[in-house]
Design goal:
single chain; about 200 residues; alpha+beta; Beta Polymerase, domain 2; five-stranded mixed β-sheet; about 10% strand; NT_sf; GrpB family protein; GrpB/CoaE
Amino acid sequence: MRVAVLVYDPAWADHFQCIKADLATALQNVPYLSIEHVGSFLIPGLYAKPIIDVDIVVDPKHYPMAASALSYNGYVFKPEPTGIDRMSFRYSAHALYSGASKPTEDGSVRRPVYLVMLTASSYRNHIAVRKALLGHPELVSEYAQVKRELGKRDFRDLGQYAGAKSQILQKILAMSELDEDTVNDIAALNRWTLKKE
């Protein structure tokens, strides 16, 4: 399978604002902390899959209420491999699995949505990568080059594609504000997840 990797487009920030507004409406009765764009299309100059990754930060005691609100508003729960500290949802108007390489059925932007707690490794990983890239333009250039090259290759699945990015992501995490133990924990979790996919 070929993973679509596109050049950065500033219009994606507007797409996120629309998605965020829709999610805020869906979660109007749920106490949440934030709705954050955590994917590559947030970073100017970075190539990315044509999707907008969204983390919704929620206190774990509100997970059931948040999951119910998302389900009621067109999101389908997608179980993660054991060990991942988040709940994943896909928008029901989109195919649940496309390899992020096919246009959506309704023409809207594909949007994986994750319920996470503030201390979740997956959330800390997303935020650390985002901050490191925003603070180090040279990393953006290097990561963009890796993604351009990966966009030319065929992969068995998204797990194999993700594994092909692990070396550059380790470098990015090493330049982040996270301590070494946390970086190692995230790396171990990512390696374990790739084995399960």
